Amino acid sequence: VQLVESGGGLVQPGGSLRLSCAASGATFSSSAMSWARQAPGKGLEWVSGIYSDGSTYYTDSMKGRFTISRDNAKNTMYLQMNSLKPEDTAVYYCNVQKYWGQGTQVTVSS
User: What is the largest CA-CA distance in the chain?
Assistant: First the structure.
């Protein structure tokens, strides 16, 4: 099983990015999927999750700015991030069951 994140990069404050997490080696349509992040010098922080029925949850600081979605046909999860702030700078990881991706770096800076 492999999870591969993509879509990270450098963006100015107020900008947007869309992260993707592509899963291979198994089908996760019946599993919850989630995003977490780790900022420099800090611990892992849960960002958002999406259940198999499409219901979602967000950490309070991301509500209204981030949108999680999934495409079960493509075995892929997304995170649309808008109104990005410097404090959103982190490595973003996707997680399904016991599996983790390698992470994608998001840097918000002017």
Answer: 40
Pairing type for strands 99-100 and 90-96 reads antiparallel
Q: Counting Cβ atoms within 10 Å, is residue 24 exposed (0-12), middle (13-18) or buried (19+)?
A: exposed
Mean pLDDT over residues 47-61, rounded?
94
34 and 47 in contact (C-beta within 8 Å)? yes
Which tokens go with 44? 């892992």
Distance set, CA 97 to CA 3, 7, 10, 66 (Å): 11, 22, 29, 22
Query: In the predicted model, is pLDDT for residue 27 greater than 90?
Result: no
Tell me the β-bridge partners of 94. Answer: 35
